[in-house]
Amino acid sequence: MNKKHWETVYETKNPDQVSWTQVIPKTALDFINAFDVPKTAKIIDIGGGDSKLVDYLVDQGYENITVLDISEKAIVKAKNRLGEKAKKVNWIVSDIIEFEPKTSYDIWHDRAAFHFLTSAEQIEHYVKIARGAVNGYLVIGTFSENGPTKCSGLEIKQYNEEKLTRSFSNGFDKMSCIIEDHKTPFDSIQNFIYCSFKKQ
Q1: Which end of the chain has fewer beta carbons closer than 10 Å to its terminal beta carbon, N or C?
Q2: pTM for this one?
């Protein structure tokens, strides 16, 4: 991934100026809550940036939350927004394909980071990292085949249910998939696919 690109994005743009902003990350919360894990479950948000998912997880009482992002500036923004609550979260600045997990996770959530990996080698490496780090559930959200072909000026890889399932078949069993229209702050629509998986 391109660290310099993402540092510039988060340095120069506010949440209402980037397409991926969600006021309420309802889909992610629905998936996570449906897994019915205890509040002590370890949850990691991959490419969490300054997403508000962490705010809602903290408010719901989850105690072991990690946010990973390639951009230090994104994490600083999230910490500033959370204030004192930021101390309840484990923050990691890392490119996902360079991430070396020091623990295992009950839930791995990724909305719109995975689809920036466009080579077979990168994708395989991501799955290998997830396979070694996840002992419960995985939620992956990407642009669908009806979604954009680029995000933030970078090429992405589109997925349908079959392709996403196949990508994670070595290590995970698909549970369910949904298609969602995300309305951006600019009132445009981006079509996403989300799939949940259980570790084999």
Answers
A1: C
A2: 0.89
Domain 3-199 class in CATH? alpha beta
**CA dist., res. 77 & res. 158, Å (int):** 28
Domain ranges for the chain, please list them: 3-199
Q: What DSSP string runs through the chain?
A: --HHHHHHHHHH--GGGSTT--SS-HHHHHHHHHT---TT-EEEEET-TT-THHHHHHHTT--EEEEEES-HHHHHHHHHHHGGGGGGEEEEE--GGG---SS-EEEEEEESSGGG--SHHHHHHHHHHHHHHEEEEEEEEEEBTTS-SEETTEE---B-HHHHHHHTTTTEEEEEEEEEEEEPTTS-EEEEEEEEEEE-
Within 10 Å of residue 173's Cβ, how many Cβ atoms? 13
CA angle 5–10–12, rounded 5-degree value: 95
User: Can you tell me the distance from the alpha carbon of 192 to that of 194, in angstroms, rounded to the nearest whole number?
Assistant: 7
Are the C-beta atoms of residues 129 and 105 closer than 8 Å to each other?
no
- Token digits of residue 60: 């719901």
Tell me what pLDDT residue 49 has.
84
Residue whose entry in the numeric block shows the structure tokens 């370890």: 42
Q: d(Cα 150, Cα 137) in Å, to the nearest integer?
A: 28
| Average pLDDT per consecutive 10 residues, the chain (200 residues; last block may be shorter) | 66 58 84 97 94 95 97 94 97 96 97 94 97 98 88 86 97 96 77 96
